[in-house]
Target: Heat shock 70 kDa protein
Amino acid sequence: MELKDNFLLVAAIDFGTTYTGYAYSTLKEFQTDPLKINMMTWNAGSGGLVSQKTSTCVLFKPDGTFHSFGYKAEDYYTELYMDDKHKDWFFFRRFKMELYKDHINKNFMLRTSDGKGMSAITVISAVIGYLKGHLIEAIHTQAVDVSETDIRWVVTVPAIWSDAAKQMMREAVERTGIVSNQLILALEPEAASMLCKNLPAVELFSADYTDKVDTFRSGAKYMVFDAGGGTIDITIHEALKGGFLKEIHAANGGDWGGTKVDEALEEFLESIVGKAAFHHFKANDIPSVIDLHRNFEVKKKTFKSKDAGKQTTLTSPVRF
Model:
């Protein structure tokens, strides 16, 4: 099926390891200012966390139907846990990295922390479907006059994902009713390059720092280092005439994203209380684990290089 070209609005979904969000821009806005991008603001119920993305967590009812996503899923699951009604529910968090594994296929299963399983494509499709509905509602709230057939959908994926993982993502998106001629799966480093081309502050200097160089002039080559929550993608692009990009070195990288910092925190806490005790805490008190990560995320977001070596105070959950 050929791609349609005459779209009035582009909607992009960034399905991340730790956080997920969306943005959109109308054709008129883009023609006036390419950086006029509309984004959602999400608020966590605790921890004082405000972000343009929400936590990549999804909650399903005991019968397997979708209940909630993001901070709402975290908060509702916490309430269930406090009332001891959580055991039959399906709660998934930070599950995107499971798709980085080998031998991915459409029958691949995701597991909750307590071992309950659900098809990965079902989980991902539910998340994308929720974000699609949320985005369309936001568009209508802003009185943007477009129909669903006027929307180009863009979903970003890591460049280092296997073809099988990318195909699973495509199938999951299409299950939500987004047809293939309205959908683009964009590699995350390419999406970053396209944004940087429009940022006025992006400039390079010559090797001797005497002359400014047009970063994205035709023929220019540059490295893209995309450090995300789960993975780091490194690739090299060449700028072509007409605003096009060419990948001149295959994407490389690994699972070295921001969650590695979280793992280091957990290893530190484990060294204090012992491996068995900490693993019991992680497996049996998910709400406290969520609270711990929320508080740590606030610390990470406010950390500056000048703070290196200084003491940081982190409040631990009461149950810990």
About this structure: The chain has a mean pLDDT of 86. The chain has two domains: 9-188, 258-305. Residues 120-141 form the longest helix (22 residues).
